[in-house]
Amino acid sequence: MKTHNFFTKAPLMLAIFSMGMFAACSSDDDTPTPTPADPDPDPTEDPVTDPELMSETFEYSFNEGQLLGDPATAYDGSKGDHPRNLSATMLVEELEDGNARVTLTLNNTIDGETYAVHAHDAADPNETENGTPYNETPNSGVFAGMLTASGNSAMESVETDITYEELINTYEGFLVVHDPTQELSTVDLTTYLVLGTFARENEAGEANLRTASFEYTFNEGQAAGDGTAYEGEHARDLMATLTIEEQIDGTSVVTIMLNNTVDGEEYAVHAHDFADASETPNGTPYNETPNGDVFAGMIMSADGSGMASNNSPMSFNELTQNYEAFLVVHDPLQELSTVDLTTYLVLGVFADGGEESNDGE
Questions:
Q1: 223 to each of 232, 238, 331, 341, how far by Cα in Å?
Q2: pTM above 0.85, yes or no
Q3: pLDDT score of 51 more than 80
């Protein structure tokens, strides 16, 4: 389990928490005339509500560690795989009995996923089982729900066991939206999509977006073995750099940079998905048709280099952890082939190795 220093932030957390008109008409004899009933009432009309009942709305941004001012408590996308543009809106409405209705709306959700959303009472971390500044058991009398996303949103309402005034003014607790793409934890803050103070505004933090780069040298047969090294007239010092940048909506930008190119030439660069060689038309260990969702582009060379980018619908994790494919740079000095590996200037496993950085740190 990852160790976090948020347990030392209890004083900070405690500081955070210590935060009609009527009309009448008369006839000539001053006898009140009753108002006639609506002969055709509309059942879809909203019921009349007491104008004196209160309500407040609170906005919550994605957990980038801003609540505790600590990037180590931000959502860790290497363990889960949720877009970082999810947000939550809390509507708190006073009811006639003095209690409250809490409505939670999630936006930019994953269709079909079910989100656990909880209120956790603030607590002394010296007295909790795992040193958390809150009780791990949710307070269902305030809010504990499972919100299933339909499209890009989800919503649920809960009537509280405490008064509206208490909830707005004195209740000390957290609002937590758990990540449905990984195992639920009530201890690890880096699994929380939203972490905020209950019934308080939660401002946006700087997005902890990741970038990874991968270097590729010339095809000397190192990727696929004997008989696959380049044969042709291109200089053998060409190199390629693959860069994958995480986007806040869960997509990625894939960029290819070529160096030591021939000026004025146009290089075809492709991602080819792995395949069973016994099932492909020409016995290749990959699909000959490039995967355009990842990268299939033409890079024009100028001054010894060239670059192109593609917006991929695949997530950073999918591309860097799960996607199985080759990166191929074709030789512009001979006829393009998707079968003859000896025409490939670069042939390497897509996103293999490399270094990852974090823009939010």
A1: 18, 16, 17, 10
A2: no
A3: no
Q: Is 354 left (phi over 0), alpha (psi -120 to 50) or beta?
A: left
Q: What share of the chain is helix, strand, coil (3-state, %, to 5)?
A: 10, 35, 55
Query: Per this entry, what is the length of the chain?
Result: 361
- Partners of 143 in beta bridges: none
- Helix then strand count (H, E) for the chain reads 3, 17
Sign of CA pseudo-dihedral 37, 40, 42, 43:
positive
Phi-psi label, residue 248: left if phi above 0, alpha if psi -120 to 50, beta otherwise: alpha
Instruction: Please tell me the distance from the alpha carbon of residue 222 to that of residue 344, in angstroms, as a whole number.
Output: 12
Backbone angles phi, psi at 346, to 5 degrees: -130, 135
SS3 166: helix
The Cα 163–Cα 142 span in angstroms is 10
Candidates 2, 174, 136; CA nearest to 71 is 2
Q: What is the pLDDT of residue 224?
A: 87
What letter would DSSP give residue 319?
I
